[in-house]
Amino acid sequence: MSVRVVNDAQQRNRWSTVRGRVLELLALGHSSKEICETLYLSRTALDYHVAALRDALDASNRASIVARAYNQGVLQADTWPPTICPQG
Q1: b/e sequence 6-42, b meaning 16+ C-beta within 10 Å
Q2: What is the pTM of this model?
Q3: Cα within 13 Å of Cα(72), Cβ side
Q4: Which of 18, 34, 45, 82 can pair with 30 through a Cys bridge, CB separation 3.0 to 4.6 Å?
Q5: 19 near 27, Cβ under 8 Å?
Q6: pLDDT in tens, 18-37
Q7: Distance in angstroms (rounded) separating the CA atoms of residues 75 and 82
């Protein structure tokens, strides 16, 4: 496993509004169909964002995307429903 070093600007730009919402909905346990309907995305667009999240967080599946997002401070650990950290 490699460690990525990013500066603050890179970290802020890393999470687009749509990608952040996808992550929040994944953390809530929503299905692909529910996420697509909620965000008005095609399945192809959702798959693109999930793949980008997997790459960004070096995760192998949806559960590990959420776990790593909490571990790396991307998602706030002290709130429900899950939300992206303001600095994340």
Answers
A1: eeeeeeeebbeeebbbbbbbbbeebeeeebbeebebe
A2: 0.79
A3: 20
A4: 34
A5: no
A6: 999 999 999 999 999 999 99
A7: 6
